[in-house]
Design goal:
Elements: E1 5-8, H1 13-23, E2 29-32, H2 49-64, E3 67-77, H3 98-108, E4 118-128, E5 134-145, E6 161-163, E7 168-169, H4 175-181, H5 183-201
Parallel strand pairs: 1-2, 1-3
Antiparallel strand pairs: 3-4, 4-5, 5-6, 6-7
Helix pairs in contact: 1-5, 4-5
Bound molecules: inosinic acid.
């Protein structure tokens, strides 16, 4: 176990870049699973974003020691009763393209107008700590499902996630603009606050 490092349990390089930027001033080394030499196939069978993030973080923490962070995120569409929610990545099949998934959501909302199109991205982050306890944070960004697929930035559901006040989808924001307002950015900054407190107390 190394007291000066944090492992972020993801294999997504885009997320790692964002995490390194936001957590830089904690003064800890931030490693991906690959960099930490850890491989794990984790069954995410939790019933909430928080449960899934906790499952990932605690499994890896038991393998690696130290502080391990993990996230779980997704899109909630109110008109669809909160779907796809925690099943966002698996929605319509893991290998189905987002062009198809995004068009399917637009089609399902053909009878929804204005406020009825409300949706949010949610991100939960869990930090599994060496003493066996777990910290969690949640960040959200509110928006609406657009009427068409627009923008080529971001990933996943970004091209249909419309921000009325900016008149843009999140796929039309720069990476920096998105980090400032995104569910993941908010959850990460909240976690940075909790970790700063924890690290201060444990010294
Ligand atoms: P995970 O947190 O990596 O399991 O991702 C869950 C899924 O939620 C992703 O595969 C995307 O479909 C969706 N998702 C989460 N965050 C975003 C985002 O910022 N933009 C677009 N889609 C997202």
């Amino acid at each position: 176990m190394d007291a000066h490092r944090i492992i972020f349990a993801t294999s997504n390089e885009g997320k790692m870049k964002e995490v390194r930027m936001i957590l830089a001033d904690l003064g800890m080394e931030i490693l991906s699973m690959k960099e930490a030499g850890i491989q794990a196939d984790i069954v995410e069978d939790g019933k909430s974003f928080e449960e899934n993030a906790c499952i990932k973080a605690t499994v890896i923490q038991k393998m690696a020691g130290g502080i391990v962070l993990a996230d779980d995120s997704g899109l909630e569409v109110d008109f669809l009763g909160g779907a796809p929610g925690i099943y966002s990545a698996r929605y319509m099949g893991e290998d189905t393209s987002y062009d198809i998934k995004n068009q399917a959501i637009i089609d399902k909302l053909k009878d929804a107008e204005g406020e009825e199109r409300s949706a949010r991205f949610v991100c939960a982050i869990a930090a599994a700590l060496p003493d066996g306890s777990v910290l969690t944070t949640r960040g959200t960004i509110e928006g609406q499902i657009g009427y068409e697929i627009v923008g080529d930035g971001g990933f996943g559901y970004d091209p249909i996630f419309y921000l009325p006040e900016r008149k843009k989808s999140t796929a039309q924001l720069t990476a920096e603009e998105k980090n400032e307002i995104s569910h993941r950015g908010k959850a990460l900054r909240a976690m940075k606050g909790k970790l700063t407190e924890y690290l201060g107390d444990s010294q």
